[in-house]
Amino acid sequence: MLRKIVRFIEEEKLFYRDEKLLVAVSGGVDSVVLLHLLKEMEVECSIAHCNFHLRGAESDGDFEFVKDLAEQYEMDFYAKDFDTKAYAEANKISIEMAARDLRYNWFAELCDVFHYRYIAVGHHADDVLETVFINLARGTGIHGLTGIKPKNDRIVRPLLSFTREQILGYAKENHLQYREDSTNQETDYVRNKIRHQVMPVLQEINPGIRHTMTENVQRFREVEQIYNAEIEKNRKNLVIQKEDSLLISIAGLKDVKAPVSHLYEIISPFGFHQRDVRNIVESIYSISGKRFYSATHEILRDREYLILSAIKEQDEKEYWMEESDVEVDIPVHFKCSFLQRNPGFKFSTDPMIATFDANLLQFPLKIRKWKEGDTFQPIGMKGKKKISDYFIDQKFSLQEKENTWLLLSGNRIIWIPGHRMDDRFKITDATTKIYRLELR
C-alpha cells in the first residue's frame, strides 16, 4: 500500500515530498491511515482537527484521541470548536454543507498563517463512487460524473486509489487504533443511504460494481477534458465582455451544437441552474424582453444578445445640478461651464457635449430616469416625440433604456445625455450666454 500511494502521488502530481502538509484528521480510520502512510513516507505534516459538536461526548472523545495521536507522532496540532447547527440555521444550509464550509474555511486560514502548501484529506475510492451516485440523483452535468478529484486547488486526496476495505486492512495489519463514528451507520444522511442501501443492491446486480464504476469515472474524466476544450473553443465566439456585463450571442447559440450545455457552462458560475438554462435557450426562439434571475444576477433576452449582469436596485431618485456647479459625478459625470456667445463659437458634433441657451434654463436642473409618457422635442424637429418611441427608433436595448438618464429644466426634458438635445433650448442668433455640458 505504501508503494501504491507513492506512485499515485507522483502520477497525479499531488505534492512534492519536501512540501509541508496540513492533514485533516477526524480520528476515523481513513484519516488515521492517511496520516500513518504520510509519516512512513517522511512527509512533514501537521494535524488539524475539527470538533463540530454534533455527537456530544463522542465528539469530545475524538478530539482527545487525535490530540494524543499528534503527541505520539510529535506533530503540530491545531483544533477548533464549531457551533455547526447554529451556522447551518443562519445560512439556511444542511448540517453536512455547514460542516464542509466551516472546516475548509478554517483549513485555508491555517495554510495562510502557517504556510502549509496543501491540505491532505482522507477521501477514498468508495467516496468517489458515492459522490457520483449522489450527483446523479440530484441532477448533474459531466463534471458531476467525475466524482472527487485527486487534487483541487489546495486540497489533495492521496487515498483515492484505495477502497475502504483496503484501508481497513492496512489499519488492521499495522495495529492502528481509530475512532468509529456512530453516525456512519445511520441513514439520515444522503451519503449513508447510498453506502448502506443503494450500493448493496448494485453489488447484487454486479458483484464488481466498484471496479466497474471506478473505470467509468476514469472514462468520464477523459470525456470531461474533451468537453471542456470544445466549450472553451466556442466560448470565444459566443461571449463578449462589455463593461460589467456579458453579452452572449443568440445567433451563436442557435448555430452551436448542444446550446444548452454551452450556455450552462457560461452562466452556471453566476448561480443559474440547469432548469433555468433550458428555459433561457427556449426564449431565444421567441420575442425579446424576457428576463431570468439567479440570486445575484439577471439575464435579459435582448434582440441579438442574452445580456448577463449583476442585479442592481432600480434608482428612482432625482438628482439636482446647481447653477454654480462646475462638475457633478452622481448619478452621471458632467463637466459644466458657462460661455459668452461670440462670433467664433462653433457647435460641437460630439454627442457627449451639449450646449444650451443659458437664459432659457431654470436652475437647479434635474437628473432622473425616464418614465412612461415622457416627451421631448428632438433638435431639428417641430413636434414632440415620446422618449419611448425615440428609444425604439434608435434601437436601444432594454438594458440601455434602463440605464439612460434624462436632464430636465423644470419639468421639460432638455437632453438625453449622450444622444439628443431638445430643440426648444438650442442656441440661436439671439443667444448671448451659453451653458455647456460635457458627459464624461
Characteristics of this structure?
single chain, 440 residues, Rossmann fold, Phenylalanyl-tRNA Synthetase, Chain B, domain 3, 40% helix, 21% strand, EC 6.3.4.19
Structure description:
There is one protein chain. With 440 residues, the protein is of the alpha+beta class. It folds into 3 domains: 216 residues, 3-Layer(aba) Sandwich (Rossmann fold); 68 residues, no CATH class; 121 residues, Phenylalanyl-tRNA Synthetase, Chain B, domain 3, CATH 3.50.40.10. It has a 6-stranded mixed β-sheet, with helices on both faces. A 5-stranded antiparallel β-sheet has the order 7-8-11-10-9. A 5-stranded antiparallel β-sheet has the order 12-16-19-20-21, with no helix packed on it. A hairpin with a 3-residue loop joins strand 20 and strand 21. Helix 2 packs across helix 7. The longest helix has 30 residues. The radius of gyration is 32 Å and the shape is elongated. This is tRNA(Ile)-lysidine synthase.
